[in-house]
Amino acid sequence: GRLTAIVPAAGVGARAADGTGPKQYRPIAGTAMLVHTVRALLAEPRIDRVLVAVAPGDAQAANLLAGVARVQVLACGGATRYDSVANALAAAGLAGDDWVLVHDAARPGLPADALAALIDACLPDPVGGLLALPVADTVKRAGEGEAAPRVEATLSREHLWQAQTPQMFRAGLLSEAFARVRARGEAPTDEAGAVEALGARPLLVRGSFANLKVTWPQDFIWMEKWLG
Ligand code: CTP
Ligand code: MG
């Protein structure tokens, strides 16, 4: 089947807010974050097209990406990332065995080799998978509702991975997974979480630190260096 990328880009970027609007349009090394992200995907020849999900009424993505081959901007953004992706998937008109690769607009530093490794690993796999990084730091759980948080427990970092995107699954499996979590009233924060709700076990493919999700204002400083 074909390989379609979906880029959720309908967030408001509250944690990165600097008063200039959603983070995905802020320039990094002179080019809007979203444009870096879309270019990283288009550099992979096995990706047939890129669908960018933006908030209804948002004209910025369409302006930035006007005339770019293999790219379509859809005004199908929803209240959560999950809604934005589910709406784009429904609008994409895919066959069940087509592949979908979901990648955050907020991860403009995706290296070509990590993207290629994910696709290589998923294409022959019955489930699909995601980029992720083994947890390097010792992990603490804090107590609930404390003004000054204190450690309640130390978790073993063994076998723990931090999920990144892209996350790649067959369109049929992903639609079924989304229907399942919707019926349960859940809103998973990534595609793998929905697929896991079906009892399937996504592949973990080693990602890259450069693929960090630009979330806080200081993340722009690091990303300027990587992309500059
Ligand atoms: N996203 C989306 N639709 C939403 C919320 C988020 O398409 N309703 C997208 C964002 O644009 C981003 C990706 O999902 O590319 C990951 O989300 P995140 O980094 O949390 O971005 P924001 O939600 O914009 O940031 P914040 O949570 O700080 O407000
Ligand atoms: Mg968010």
From TrEMBL:
Residue stretches in coiled coil: none
Pfam family membership, one: IspD
SUPFAM superfamilies: Nucleotide-diphospho-sugar transferases (SSF53448)
Pathway: Isoprenoid biosynthesis; isopentenyl diphosphate biosynthesis via DXP pathway; isopentenyl diphosphate from 1-deoxy-D-xylulose 5-phosphate: step 2/6
Keywords, sorted A to Z: Isoprene biosynthesis, Nucleotidyltransferase, Transferase
Site (Transition state stabilizer): R15, K23
PANTHER family (alphabetical): 2-C-METHYL-D-ERYTHRITOL 4-PHOSPHATE CYTIDYLYLTRANSFERASE, CHLOROPLASTIC
Record's protein name: 2-C-methyl-D-erythritol 4-phosphate cytidylyltransferase
Species the sequence originates in: Verticiella sediminum
Gene: ispD
